[in-house]
Design a protein that fits this description.
Structural class: mainly beta
Shape: globular
Radius of gyration: 13 Å
Mean pLDDT: 96
Number of strands: 11
Amino acid sequence: QVQLVESGGGLVQAGGSRRLACVISGRTSSIWLMGWSRQAPGKEREFVADIIWSGGSTSYADSVRDRFTISRDNVKNTVYLQMNSLKPEDTAVYFCNSDQRYWGQGTQVTVSS
């Protein structure tokens, strides 16, 4: 099994930045893909970004491309989501996941206008 713990959420003004972290423990050797998703109030969970754990290739949702950057530190077993130029519509609970199979508890990001 894989355990995931997110951190870094909070309140930020529009146009500001925030960095989320997801610490991974357990069977990290089995991981292929790490990702971030988010869920806003009253909406379904949506894909934000993902990264291939070994190779580092990334992909992004159109809504965050050029503003968000996903990265990983294989030594620290941590995945990051750097969020810049935040907008009120980025307000959501952000979830880290491993291969879409294991999920963290989420961290709230609120962007004020």
